[in-house]
């Protein structure tokens, strides 16, 4: 695995081109130099390197998972009535597109408007039930219930004015289901779920495998939903750099402002790893659009070296 | 090839859910019932069915080809200074996004703003030179110089007010190169290039093969450019239905309002056809976003039956 | 006063071109045929006609009054840091303009975004204090504390999703002062203040008189503030018909969806009434932009007959 | 007239807060220190001071005049089918509002979109006829045919990309009448008409007098049109500062980027001048929204000193 280690060593210094997210104290205190990578294939082969003990919050990466869970619960047809799956070049927290495109249906579940709508549909009548059900869904993939970081949740909750504006806007237009504050709290708690890179890689592996968990031998969700999630990740998973990531890396991925990236490859061969491969990355220094700088660099080189692009 | 024939027969009646484009007389007079399909693989195996003698204009399909040609001429780095490659859920002829996102750089070459900018960069000082050079580039793929339909060009030229508005807007912001009227005329002439489904399938095959023409054994353009073109087709090739097409069909494709669709599959096996496969479709009845209804239906079933989705 | 009575009789049947506001039960149950008019001049001469006993809620008319009160309390320079005074052709509850014009400063206090910002600045630490202080300010003009309609407030409060979205958006951008829910409740309570046409006419008279109350002989606020209020009423007081109202009627006015209109004339002579004249109107059938149809008709004819246009 | 002279002297140094327009060579070469003022009343009393010999181009001031002329020719009802009269806080050359408000009808004749539409309606089949007819209409007010500055017209024409974009957009949506290039050339020629401050003051005087020329004793256009023009000037005559100008100065006015301002007062008394007064100003250093800095300062002080605000 010498080559992989070298790719990581080469990518790590690029953290200097980014900064840790500063709008939450909990995120701003992280060491920007950190870089952790985990790769796992369908046979359970694992490659790990760097600060893999580090836990970090899912943030926007949770959007893919809650979308899959809600689709698995209610069926994609029902879900698509409330959220479209069209990409958009807008910032993740834009309101303007909601209003200019009647009647306010969120473009896709990867932007905040769509993700909050999805969170409002999480099964369960209370915030606790919704979050618990999502934790249980994730546990089927990673084996344990991920915890919510109270520190991160609390600081986001207190300044969530813009997300609250989006949520009430969605309610006014009939897309957000149930109580607005419940949806918003569930959303911010799912964003504050703590994972490590191996857990991230395992979730990616299940999605890559079309919902089938190769280690537990269970089909956790429908292949159709997995393919939809992969398409969404490719078209709008990397914020406003999604198009360039598709063009130059060519892998389905979803990033979060905590510096995490969930990525996956299909039909790949990366040293001993083969077939579908889940990738989890943590590199907290992010660029101006919100993606881990060192993480992006690593994926770019990895895709090139092992010809992983799906195109 | 009985199965393929059956898929076509099943898809054809869906033309009833669409209408031929009416804004150009030449397009509006076409029989909406028509459906022609051509598939070709790297060994030269061809499957054809339906009204394959019919010629039709490229329209927006030309946007992929001119983008590839301009990138092959000047390098992708140069081209990306003038056009971004980020998808957007906006209608193809929207101006609003240009103005709201400073400084007016077109989001991607698949919307009119981006495509007109690309046409302004076609090598050649005059309209004739630009069009001739593009025809020569296409000829390397299909063997002949495709003709410009004077009838279609003339009627588009006379009513091209909105495209002209976009073009002058791009000029005002420094993205359109050279003379505006030259760029616009070149753009509308490239849209009016006449092809049949087999030519379309052949162009698709070369893109699928990363720029290598398996029949002439020539590398016509760089693999990196081909991958960028495929990513663009997947993220924004099917107008405002691109995201849904990626989710439910999962193939790089580009459609035009004439009812043509250029599509491609990689690592596929469709009856006798194998490996990279180019697909050309003509079904002139289009839906409200601009895609051939019967053509979309055929691709949806084809992808499902032969598991072609790249996801 | 036979002529005035005739103008009212001629205007009343135009109620048929409108409808009572339906989004609040309390408003939707009002008889659309009602029309009440009150005119009062600086000598205390009063003309009244129609259903003048009817009370109705101020709704958007309250925006002028709270703006004047907040300016009188903190000075116009301070207030203009939080709200601009530029007109805009947008619907009163638009969010889009907030986002597209950095950094989200409301265009003027007559649209909801500006009015909610102003309500957040009402003196007082609690909702009750804020509303009480506004009531006291109004009482200096009309002699009594106007009551809040609990019925109207309650039904608006429960469905105020869009206003809440606007309020949190303003908070996110630093314009809304203090607690969002306090500001919103104060805003909706000021909208639910009950008045009759004579009280409306009296308020209008004080504004017309540049803040001087000709009956109590008190200067209630600065002439500079009154002139600013009149300018705002003329440029953006009649929702999306403000420009046409300025062109064809030419009087400062502010309307509410309850069907009320506060209007004023300066240097006028209307039968026995002379000089500055305050006008209060109630005609609950409103047109699609939100103005009382019969009320507008009456003002149009009144302005023409007595040459009241300020232009 | 010592007081007026003093006001001018006090306003002149404020030119330092502005800059001459730089996008046209002809404008950029003017001395920013210049300040010329002319006031004229209905009895022909004239006050003039400063560089009154200086000629300058009308630029946006021409928008009021062409609007009046087209209304006088075809009637306001006809004209209002093509252009609305609602104010908007947008920059004068914005396209975004055209597209977001279906179906693209210009908000008012004071923004470029509305003004170009009005120019397309100027009577006459050719550019020369249109311009000649407008010159003749102006000649009825000022006594002579104003000349077109070829230098200014030529430099604007060569770089009129943004106006051309607006014009073709209007054509695409059916608002612009006749040939686009003819309308645009007529528009830019009307903007390049040369006047001095006394001519400007005389035009203002006729508008102030509701279309009646007090010196030639002719009714040049209907009072209703004049009132509409005054309302437009007040609500949207001073670009994005129109609301503040209405609030703090309170006079109908129209400015141009050449540094000219046409302004008018009614029922005024300014030293020997009485009744309706026309004001012409030239101060070429403009602020960031496009208004003459020294000219605005002078009008602000003039309005305050002589209590000219219509509010």
UniProtKB/TrEMBL annotation, chains A, B, C, D:
Give the record's keywords alphabetically: Acetylation, Hydrolase
What Enzyme Commission number(s) does the record list for this chain?
Answer: 3.5.1.2
Q: Which SUPFAM superfamilies match?
A: beta-lactamase/transpeptidase-like
GO molecular function per UniProt: glutaminase activity
Catalytic activity from the UniProt record: L-glutamine + H2O = L-glutamate + NH4(+)
Which annotated residues bind substrate? 60, 112, 156, 163, 187, 239, 257
NCBIfam families the UniProt entry points to = Gln_ase
Q: What is this protein called?
A: Glutaminase
Annotated source species: Lysinibacillus louembei
């Amino acid at each position: 695995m010498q080559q992989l280690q070298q790719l990581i060593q080469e990518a790590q210094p690029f953290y200097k081109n980014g900064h840790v997210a500063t709008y939450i104290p909990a995120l701003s205190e992280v060491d920007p130099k950190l870089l952790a990578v985990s790769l796992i294939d369908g046979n359970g082969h694992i490659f790990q390197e760097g600060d893999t003990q580090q836990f970090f919050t899912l943030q926007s990466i949770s959007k893919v998972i809650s979308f899959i869970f809600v689709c698995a619960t209610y069926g994609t047809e029902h879900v698509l009535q409330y959220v479209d799956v069209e990409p958009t070049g807008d910032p993740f927290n834009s309101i303007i597109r909601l209003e200019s495109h009647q009647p306010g249906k969120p473009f896709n579940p990867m932007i905040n408007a769509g993700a909050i709508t999805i969170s409002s549909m999480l099964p369960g009548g209370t915030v606790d039930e919704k979050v618990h059900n999502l934790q249980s869904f994730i546990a089927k993939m990673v084996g344990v219930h991920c915890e919510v970081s109270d520190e991160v949740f609390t600081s986001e909750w207190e300044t969530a004015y813009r997300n609250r504006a989006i949520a009430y806007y969605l309610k006014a237009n009939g897309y957000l289901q149930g109580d607005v504050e419940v949806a918003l709290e569930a959303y911010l708690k799912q964003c504050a779920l703590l994972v490590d890179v191996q857990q991230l890689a395992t979730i990616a592996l299940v999605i890559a495998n079309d919902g089938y968990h190769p280690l537990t031998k269970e089909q956790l969700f429908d292949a159709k939903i997995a393919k939809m999630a992969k398409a969404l990740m490719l078209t709008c998973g990397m914020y406003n750099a999604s198009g360039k990531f598709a063009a130059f890396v060519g892998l389905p991925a979803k990033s979060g402002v905590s510096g995490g990236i969930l990525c996956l490859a299909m039909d790949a061969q990366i040293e001993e790893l083969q077939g579908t491969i889940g990738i989890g990355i943590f590199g907290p220094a992010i660029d101006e659009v919100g993606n881990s700088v060192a993480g992006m660099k690593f994926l770019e080189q990895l895709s090139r070296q092992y010809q992983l692009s799906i195109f």
